[in-house]
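FAQ: What does the model actually see?

It sees only this:
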Amino acid sequence: MADDCEAHSIERCRLALKARIEQQVTLEESRIRLGEREFTWYRVTDPGRLLDAAVRNSDQPAEELDPFWAATWRAAQGLDQFLARLSLQGQRVLELGCGSGQAGTGAAARGAQVTMTDAVGIALMVARLNAWPLGKRVEFRRLQWACDRLDVASFPIIIGSDLVYDPKLFSLIELCARHHLSPEGRLYLSEPQRHTGDHFARWIRQAGWASKEHEIDLQDDRVAIRVFECWLAEA
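And it is asked to produce this:
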C-alpha cells in the first residue's frame, strides 16, 4: 500500500510538471529509444511561440528566451549513438545546453549519473519531464557558461550537442568545460559538420586542447554527425 501511495504521488508530480510546461508551450508525445530503453518523449510543437515571446520581451536576458533549444537536432541523435561506445556505468556526466534532454537521458539510460544544465528554465523543465523515468540518476541545474560555476566535484565526462554553431560561443564553452572537467577527463561535442565546426576544430587546439574526430552515420541519407573528443593537452 505504501508503495502504491508513493507511486501515485510521483505520478501527480509528473502531471503537475507537464501542466506547468503546457502553460507556456504545446507538447506532442512520441516514443523514442535511448540507451536500449524506450521513453515517452515530449517535443515542443510550437517553438515559434517562444520566439514571439522573445521578441515581445526583448528587455529580458537572451539566454532566458532562446527558442532554439526546443527544436529536435540531429546532433543530439548522433551524440546519443556515440555514447554507446563509451563505458558509462557509474560515471558522472555533465551535459551543457541540454535542451529537451536527449543526449543526457541517453547517458543516464546507459548507467551514468548525469547533471543536465541549461540557461533556459523551461528547457530544464521539459528535460526533467522527458528524463522522469530515470529518477535520481539525473539532476538539473541552471548554468550560464559565462558566469556560473557548479558547486560540485569536477566531471570525468562533459557532453554537448550542437553547441559550436557560433564562434562567439567557443570561448564560453571552453571556459566552462575547463572549469568543470576533471584531470584527464573528456569533452564530447557533436555537430552536423558545419563550417563553424571546422573553425572550432582549429580553435580548440589553439586554446590548448588536444582533439580527435568521430563520425556517426544516422542512416538518414544526410551528412554524418561529427563528434569532437577533446581533452586538455597538458593533462
